[in-house]
């Protein structure tokens, strides 16, 4: 039986309980016998909640713009319910004695928890209670890597799985470690990375496993793939089906901080392209026993990270032979096209076109690059863009697939977008036949 930390926050008894308690709490806050409440305070709370919700919409969607797409109506509705619960409790305190006031505060708390979890259900951001607590069960990278081991020999034309024989003492699960990856050449100051090493890494002789460099969206951080993406569980499940074999995963940061957006280029906001195409691979080579050939290296990410994965694949094809672009854009952007060119490229359209994937693929062929584009069927913004970029990649000679998954621009698409493509990645990087 799963413990409380593994209870689902998106379906099952826990969200049902939050819904029931939340609605009862809202009803308690809405009702009172005092006539002034019905004629003055309740209408004031309703109007003020609506105005504050609209203000949130203006601030987030029009001014701040921290997300690649606007807050949807459903999310704004639940923000409105949360604000309404707080306002009702604040206004109702004057009508209650101390026990009633305590009840109103608890009611406001339960309404807030209910509304926040409804937003969580929409984005599927925290699948379980455990994911709310951040990454669990990490070990130091030094302990995870252990000593240098003899290398498993794989004959030309064979995959690792065809010569691999898992030892009896092979661990059942891989390891997860936090580590900085310095921008030795780029000077880029990245957020802390995570490294997943599959069970097979801890064997001797050690197979030189393929490497997947994985990136979060913006706003975000590498730990998002560990918590919301449930990366260790996903990779351990694949390893369990393949005798402990799975790719090494390096969850790297292309942002610098959660709300930065340097557009994955070498620009005024940081040399991110150099960081991902040189610093990260060089660090992996120096600290891990892993495959070195470009055919066994892949790059992937979601949303902003998906856009970045294609950018790096076409601008550094000598390093990465494969990519998985999950809900990426058709071009790097921090707003309008002109705003992007002005802010990041100093108004130089030629500098933008030099690194923009659509322009690069229009003038260059990539017969030795393979990729997958993933889009949500309900993603009205990035779904159509994925199809445009997919067509351009095909014309550029890439071996690409387009995968549509049910859902919008949320973890309902991003998590399975990676999970369903791990077998493809394993075959592409010569891990399995």
Automatic annotation (TrEMBL):
The family database entries (SUPFAM superfamilies) matched by this protein are listed as: alpha/beta-Hydrolases
Q: Which keywords belong to this entry?
A: Membrane, Transmembrane, Transmembrane helix
For molecular function, the Gene Ontology terms on record are:
acyltransferase activity, transferring groups other than amino-acyl groups
User: Per the UniProt entry, what species is this protein from, by scientific name?
Assistant: Streptomyces mesophilus
The residues that cross the membrane are 12-31, 38-56, 76-95, 102-123
Q: Does the keyword Transmembrane apply?
A: yes
Any Pfam family: Esterase
According to UniProt, the name of this protein is Esterase
What Gene3D superfamilies does the record point to?
alpha/beta hydrolase
User: What top-level branch of life does the organism fall under?
Assistant: Bacteria
């Amino acid at each position: 039986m799963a413990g409380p930390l593994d209870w689902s926050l998106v379906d099952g008894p826990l969200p049902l309980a939050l819904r029931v308690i939340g609605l009862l709490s809202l009803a308690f806050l809405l009702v009172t016998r005092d006539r002034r409440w019905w004629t003055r305070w309740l209408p004031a709370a309703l109007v003020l909640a609506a105005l504050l919700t609209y203000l949130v919409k203006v601030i987030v969607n029009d001014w701040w713009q921290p997300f690649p797409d606007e807050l949807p109506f459903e999310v704004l509705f639940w923000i409105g319910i949360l604000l309404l619960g707080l306002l009702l409790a604040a206004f109702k305190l004057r009508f209650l004695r101390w026990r009633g006031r305590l009840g109103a505060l608890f009611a406001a708390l339960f309404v807030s928890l209910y509304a926040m979890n409804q937003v969580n259900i929409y984005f599927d951001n925290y699948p379980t209670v455990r994911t709310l607590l951040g990454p669990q069960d990490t070990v130091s990278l030094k302990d995870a890597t252990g000593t240098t081991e003899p290398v498993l020999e794989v004959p030309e034309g064979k995959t690792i799985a065809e010569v691999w024989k898992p030892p009896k003492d092979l661990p059942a699960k891989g390891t997860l470690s936090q580590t900085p990856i310095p921008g030795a050449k780029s000077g880029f100051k990245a957020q802390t990375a995570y490294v997943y090493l599959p069970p097979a890494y801890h064997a001797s002789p050690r197979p030189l496993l393929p490497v997947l460099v994985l990136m979060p969206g913006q706003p975000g951080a590498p730990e998002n793939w560990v918590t919301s993406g449930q990366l260790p569980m996903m990779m351990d499940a694949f390893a369990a089906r393949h005798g402990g074999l799975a790719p090494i995963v390096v969850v790297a940061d292309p942002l610098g901080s959660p709300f930065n957006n340097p557009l994955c280029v070498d620009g005024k906001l940081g040399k991110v392209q150099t960081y991902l195409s040189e610093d990260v691979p060089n660090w992996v080579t120096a600290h891990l026993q892993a495959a070195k050939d470009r055919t066994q290296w892949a790059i992937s990410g979601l949303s902003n990270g998906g856009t970045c994965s294609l950018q790096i694949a076409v601008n550094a094809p000598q390093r990465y032979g494969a990519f998985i672009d999950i809900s990426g854009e058709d071009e790097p952007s921090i707003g309008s096209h002109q705003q992007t060119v002005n802010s990041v490229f100093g108004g130089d359209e030629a500098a933008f076109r030099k690194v923009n994937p659509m322009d690069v693929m229009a003038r260059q062929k990539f017969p030795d690059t393979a990729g997958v584009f993933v889009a949500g069927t309900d993603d009205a913004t990035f779904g159509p863009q994925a199809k445009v970029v997919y067509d351009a990649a095909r014309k550029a000679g890439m071996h690409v697939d387009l995968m549509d998954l049910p859902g919008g621009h949320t973890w309902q698409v991003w998590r399975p977008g990676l999970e369903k493509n791990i077998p493809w990645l394993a075959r592409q990087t010569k891990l399995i036949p």
